[in-house]
Each structure stands twice: as structure tokens, then as C-alpha cells.
Specification:
31% strand, alpha/beta, Transcription Regulator spoIIAA, 5 strands, five-stranded mixed sheet, 131 residues
């Protein structure tokens, strides 16, 4: 699995980092892990960091699977804000498709795609990243 996440319970902040080869399994497992984590509460702020992804070996079908997982757990994810950081063209384009489909599905969270992590943190109203 080329994904890991860290959760800060005090600030209700989730940081997910994908790296190396991103697969369908990674996307599905990450979405399921988040909704299964009992520490995560409504209103969570999340950064999905794709800066470390070298290759995408995932289909667009995974977008629907992830949205469906979130829809099934709407109450838990109510008020969630997810900022996807995708600086490379392919990842940015796929992430924008996800953003639009997520909004059209009326899923419980608010998703926005950024090329820059500083802008993502600003949108989430988080402190700037320490250097």
C-alpha cells in the first residue's frame, strides 16, 4: 500500500499521503480506513497529498467507489472539508473530475483541488506548513 495517514484528534485534522504507485486498491482502502476510524468526527479537515505519487495505476471507476463509500457514511462525514493537493497535470485532472462528481452526487463533504499545499492549508483554515 502506498498511502498513509495521520490523524490529530485534538484539531480533528487528517493528513493522507499517497506516494509511489497509486492504485485502485490504495484509493478504496484509504476511503474505507477513514470512515472506519472511530476517532474521526464530523467536520474533519483533511489534506490528501498527492505530491509523492510517481505513477497512477488506477481506473476512473475508483472515483465512484470512493464517493459511494463516503455516501454510505454521510452522517460521520458531515461538514468535512477535503483539500486534494495535486501539482502534476494527470493527478490534477483526475482530482478535478473527482471534485466535480463528488459535488454532483451531493456527497457529505466539501472537496477542492489545489496545486499548492499552502493554498490547501489556507482554504482549510490551518496554520501554514512548517518548513
Amino acid at each position: 500500500m502506498s498511502v498513509e495517514y495521520k490523524f490529530n484528534e485534538e484539531s480533528n485534522f487528517l493528513y493522507s499521503r499517497f506516494y509511489g504507485v497509486m492504485t485502485d486498491e490504495d484509493l478504496r482502502n484509504q476511503a474505507q480506513a477513514v470512515v472506519d476510524d472511530p476517532r474521526i468526527k464530523p467536520g474533519v479537515k483533511e489534506i490528501v497529498d498527492l505530491r509523492g505519487v510517481d505513477t497512477v495505476d488506477a481506473s476512473t471507476d475508483s472515483i465512484g467507489v470512493v464517493i459511494n463509500i463516503d455516501m454510505e457514511h454521510g452522517e460521520k462525514l458531515a461538514g468535512q472539508k477535503t483539500a486534494i493537493v495535486a501539482p502534476r497535470e494527470l493527478l490534477y485532472g483526475l482530482s478535478k473530475i473527482y471534485e466535480v462528481l463528488y459535488e454532483l452526487s451531493q456527497a457529505p463533504a466539501n472537496v477542492k483541488v489545489f496545486r499548492d499545499i499552502g493554498e490547501a492549508r489556507k482554504w482549510l483554515e490551518l496554520e501554514p506548513e512548517e518548513k
